[in-house]
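Changelog-linked ticket: iron/sulfur cluster example.
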Amino acid sequence: MIITISKPLDTVKETLKSYKNIFILGCGDCCATCRTGGTEEVKAMIDKLKDDFNITGSIVVEAPCDGRVAKRDLRRVKDQIEKADAILAMTCGLGVQSVALLTKETVIPANNTWGMGIIEGLGTARQVCISCDECVLVENDGKCPVIIKQVCNDCGRILAWDAKCCDQCASKNLGKKQDVPATHKIL
Ligand code: SF4
């Protein structure tokens, strides 16, 4: 699942300040689970913004990152989007870009995208993959080595998992950084 975290409301308002008419778009999949863009969060965002902006409409797209689904759902709200100066996307970065490609409108992210993670329960997620495009889980007993960074024992610089020496002080005295894989509280 893609794990997202809501940007602070003040940050969202600041990003929107050049626009008056806003359409709000949520995600019924990962962001609904993370509570950063499901039906309730979209309703809450409308309440928070309605005194400062004209909300032209809203929708929760089942999966904004699936261009086919987004295209289908966006047809229903075409008129509301046309009245907007910008779309506020309560999605991950994939959803923001998918909607921008489909609508050619200005799309503003309401969330930060933390990464891919496993939902562990009680509102926590564990990052276990960063999509390195060359999966070596089989060679590493099912544990992802890429996610575990290295640290330079001499200068403290954080380095990639496969770095051979520190690119800051040239030391070869490297160790594994132990506080990853990261667990993040999402709710
Ligand atoms: S090696 Fe790790 S980061 Fe790379 S694809 Fe596999 S799980 Fe993801």
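Closing comment: Example verified and attached. Residues 129-132, 135-137, 144, 146-147 surround iron/sulfur cluster (CB under 6 Å). Residues 122-185 form one domain.
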